[in-house]
Amino acid sequence: MSTIPVGGSTGHCHESTAAIDEAAAWLASEDHPPSPIIPALRRRFGLSTVDACAAISEAATRRRRCL
After folding, report:
1. What's the CA gap between 19 and 46, in Å, rounded?
2. Secondary structure (H, E, C), the chain
3. Angle (deg, nearest 10), helices 37-45 and 49-66
4. 25: CB partners within 8 A, 6+ apart
5. Around Cβ 22, how many Cβ atoms within 10 Å?
6. What is the model's pTM?
7. What's the average pLDDT block by block, 10 residues per block, for the chain (67 residues)?
């Protein structure tokens, strides 16, 4: 039996990955995101703290690609 969590080595299921992507896209498009951002992402997208941090990281990557 495999010990790899659901979603492979990341530990994220498909639903949480979709929510992270949605949150990252929203955050990357915001000129003035709410503060504090982690509780805002958790409320708005139903993310865990770890998933909110992943969304913040992904949003930063997306912003850097647009520069």
Report:
1. 8
2. CCCCCCCHHHCCCHHHHHHHHHHHHHHHHCCCCCCCHHHHHHHHHCCCHHHHHHHHHHHHHHHHHHC
3. 100
4. 59, 62
5. 14
6. 0.76
7. 50 74 96 96 96 96 85
